[in-house]
Amino acid sequence: MTHGVDLQLSGHTHGGQLWPGPLLAGLANPTVAGLERYGDTKLYVSRGAGVWGPPVRVGAPSDITVVELASPQA
After folding, report:
1. How far apart are CA 6 and CA 72, in angstroms?
2. Cβ-contact 29, 13 below 8 angstroms
3. Distance separating alpha carbons of residues 10 and 56, to the nearest angstrom
4. Which residues 6+ apart lie within 8 Å of 26 measured at CB?
């Protein structure tokens, strides 16, 4: 499968935030969090750093991602 894209950065899903959210998020999205490969494309999805509403997350830890991009010549 050729997408013509090397890397896609996406976010954020909250990882579902509260049960059964992680289960439902996984059903709606093939990648809820982390790095996956789809053909020639790498996809990274973040859960995000915070919450909306009450400060709770169960089974879906927050994350902050730092991405360092470098050219192949570097």
Report:
1. 13
2. yes
3. 22
4. 16, 32
Cβ atoms of 25 and 32 within 8 Å: the answer is yes
Residue 25 has what pLDDT?
A: 74
Find the helix or strand (DSSP H, E) in which 49 lies. Answer: none
Query: Would you say the pTM of this structure is higher than 0.85?
Result: no
CA distance 68 to 53: 31
Predicted confidence at residue 42, as pLDDT, reads 92
pLDDT in tens, 28-55: 778 888 899 988 899 998 887 776 666 6
Cis peptide before 14 (omega within 30 of 0): no
Contact call for residues 45 and 31 (beta carbons, < 8 A): yes
